[in-house]
């Protein structure tokens, strides 16, 4: 048997051409299709895993919310029971109180006239006591007492609370530049004392103020400071008036 090299070479060429055709038009598209399919499978798997995780999170959230609802329901139930019990107790207490009030009304009516008379006597006695106290304070009033009250006023001014400072600073800021702060004293104040008051007011108000000082013997002893709409009292006249008003309200 004689080998035909030409035929053999042509067969090899045909085979290589066939391999190239299969490689180009069959193998690569098939592999690309398989790769694409595998990629879609991975994406679908990842999406399915994500959906599963989301579903698990929703399930846990739902179970947690159910547990919270159960706790809220139980708490509301206990609260309602407590409120009902409190309401029943309050109703019983009001009933007992009403019964006791009915028994006490007669006694109250009988003692009302006596109480009113006693109140009038107490007010008259208090008014007389205030009058005598005012007369005594007028006799005791002196420049030294005014200076002592001013020192106390300066100490109290430095110890004002935040809310009181805010009120004073608001009143100070509302003043126009040419506005004066009025300071009335029962006795004349020396320059050093006036400077101390001016500096203390400026520090408390948070701005430079221009106090005007005047003497007012009607204050008995001490001073009265007016900063716009804010008034500061540290004198015997205002203290007596305050206690007199409080006694009337009582």
Largest sheet: 4 strands, mixed
Secondary-structure element string: HHHEHEEEH
Cα separation of the termini: 144 Å
Would you tell me the structural class of the helices and strands? Answer: alpha+beta
Question: Could you give the order of strands across the largest sheet?
Answer: 2-1-3-4
Spans with pLDDT under 50 lasting ≥5 residues?
none
Helical percentage? over 70%
The shape is elongated
Radius of gyration computed on alpha carbons: 49 Å
How much strand? 5-15%
How many beta-strand elements?
A: 4
**Average pLDDT, to the nearest integer?**
79
Number of helices: 5
Structure, explained:
Helices cover 77% and strands 9% of the residues. With 250 residues, the protein is of the alpha+beta class. Helix 2 packs parallel to helix 4 (191-205). The longest helix has 136 residues, at 5-140. Component of the F(0) channel, it forms part of the peripheral stalk, linking F(1) to F(0). The b'-subunit is a diverged and duplicated form of b found in plants and photosynthetic bacteria. The chain crosses the membrane at residues 6-27.
Helix and strand topology:
Elements (H helix, E strand, L loop, with lengths): L4 H136 L2 H16 L3 H12 L7 E5 L5 H15 L5 E5 L6 E6 L2 E6 H14 L1
Parallel strand pairs: 1-2
Antiparallel strand pairs: 1-3, 3-4
Membrane topology: Single-pass membrane protein
Main location: membrane
Subcellular location: Cell membrane; Endomembrane system
State the main characteristics.
250 residues, alpha+beta, cell membrane, transmembrane, transport
């Amino acid at each position: 048997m004689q080998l035909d090299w030409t035929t053999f070479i042509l067969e090899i060429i045909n085979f290589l051409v066939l391999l190239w055709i299969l490689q180009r038009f069959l193998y690569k598209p098939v592999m690309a299709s398989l790769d694409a399919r595998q990629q879609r499978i991975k994406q679908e798997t990842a999406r399915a895993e994500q959906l599963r995780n989301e579903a698990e999170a929703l399930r846990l959230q739902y179970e947690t919310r159910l547990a919270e609802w159960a706790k809220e329901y139980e708490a509301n139930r206990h609260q309602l029971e407590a409120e009902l019990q409190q309401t029943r107790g309050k109703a019983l207490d009001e009933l007992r109180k009403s019964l006791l009030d009915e028994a006490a009304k007669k006694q109250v009516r009988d003692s009302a006239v006596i109480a009113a008379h006693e109140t009038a006597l107490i007010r008259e006695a208090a008014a007389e006591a205030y009058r005598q106290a005012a007369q005594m304070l007028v006799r005791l009033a002196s420049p030294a007492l005014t200076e002592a009250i001013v020192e106390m006023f300066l100490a109290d001014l430095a110890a004002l609370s935040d809310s009181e400072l805010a009120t004073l600073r608001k009143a100070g800021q509302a003043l126009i530049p040419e506005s004066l702060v009025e300071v009335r004293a029962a006795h004349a104040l020396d320059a050093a004392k006036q400077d101390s008051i001016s500096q203390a007011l400026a520090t408390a108000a948070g701005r430079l103020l221009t106090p005007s000082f005047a003497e007012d013997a009607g204050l008995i002893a001490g001073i009265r400071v007016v900063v716009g709409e804010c008034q500061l009292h540290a004198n015997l006249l205002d203290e007596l008036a305050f206690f007199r008003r409080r006694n009337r309200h009582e």
